[in-house]
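Hello,

Our lab assistant flagged a job as stuck in the queue for most of the afternoon. It eventually completed. Since we weren't sure the result was trustworthy after the delay, we are filing this so someone can double-check. Below is the sequence as submitted and the structure that was eventually returned. Let us know if re-running is recommended.
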Amino acid sequence: MKRIILIAMLVIAGFIGKPVMGQITLEHTYDSAYSRLYMVKLEVEGYKYVYNDGADKLVKLFNLDHSIFKIMDYSFLPNFTTELGLLYISEHLFNSDNLIEYMLIYQHIDSLAHSVSYTYIINEVGNVVFSVDSGGPFVIANAPQIQVPIYNTPNGTKMILSIITLANVDSSIANVYSLPGILTDIAPPINYVTGNELAMESIYPNPSNGNTTTIEFHLPHGENKGEIVIYNLQGMEQKRYEVDNTFHNLIISNSELHSGTYFYQLLTNNGATGAKKMVVVK
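-- returned structure --
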């Protein structure tokens, strides 16, 4: 008996003064959810996982235990070329009842290569409470990056990581992990410059229906090189160009881009400018 007690004391002593390492554990997997799974905090119902099933035109909300909370159908909308995003899922933002509303943004390119945006606000029973043709919330591209995909919830801190299957994106998955710590509210944001230290002065012509588009820029003091990156409306990088102080403009061949709306941004070691819009028409 004394031997058992002695061994137990030695084991306990071995842990004294050593930090206890928390474990990151896989909690749940959502199939076919690559880049479409995130979390929201509803005003009444609290935290929910959101999965935007664009293939079947369904917004699926799940409880923190991953059981289904609500499925909202928007298949009644017209068929557009591209779905740009699902935003602002809320119970009280767009009206005062307790029904859930959400914003959907679409882009449609017609036979003449004209790009038109459409915005809908729809409630959980399928009623369109607001709509605008030829308008979309593209100012979101100018907002500083935020600290998703890690969320503090009443059930602990969660991290969402997506795994893409290149052969079949629809079969890709999103994994939810439980984290041992807490995401602090005072953690510094990603280095993001919103002032004039990095300057993207102008772009012309814009919209451009010619052979080239010219972007003017100025690198900040002390920086000798940078990159101008062009993204599509889904935030996917399309082109990346190295720039330096030799010139203060970049001439882009429109043959490298399809017709549509893009955003461009100047990146250096000092940070990044807010993204600005460019339109290519062919």
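-- support follow-up --
The delay was a queue issue, not a problem with the job. The result is valid. The chain has one helix and 20 strands. Residues 1-20, 139-147, 185-198 have pLDDT under 50 and may be disordered.
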